[in-house]
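We treat protein structure as text, and this decision shapes the records that our systems exchange. Because each token names a local backbone shape, the row as a whole describes the fold. For reference, a complete record is included directly beneath this paragraph.
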Amino acid sequence: MKEHKFKESETVELKRSTSELKEGVISIVSILNKHQRGKLYFGIRNNGEVVGQSVGEKTLRDVSKAIAAHIEPRIYPVVSQETIDGKSCIVVDFEGTDAPYFAYGRAYIRMGDEDRQLSVRELRSLILKKHEVSW
């Protein structure tokens, strides 16, 4: 059996477990503000090692609820359980074209594999780009 090798990128975020749910929500917003779509994995360390995550109905619901409660404007991701290298993981597949997105009241942008809070100037630029009028 070939083991998967995961790597964080501009559109992929890896979290060891749902204990990092808040950071995961921030990563979703960062990726959406730059690329409009991405994936978040729980159960994979940021070095790419698949460690697994205990997953029940409640776990999946908790992830969905955190996303619904803390991301504005709302998005509707697909939150699912996947077995990767024989271990249970949670995969959040998300997309949205209504940038700027905010997590916990703040806007973030993806830089490489990091999430950076947007400055006022960057936020203004993102909003202006969204409302661009072409004649």
In short: The longest strand covers residues 87-95. The mean pLDDT is 92. Strands lie at 12-15, 37-42, 71-72, 78-84, 87-95, 102-103, 106-111, 114-117.
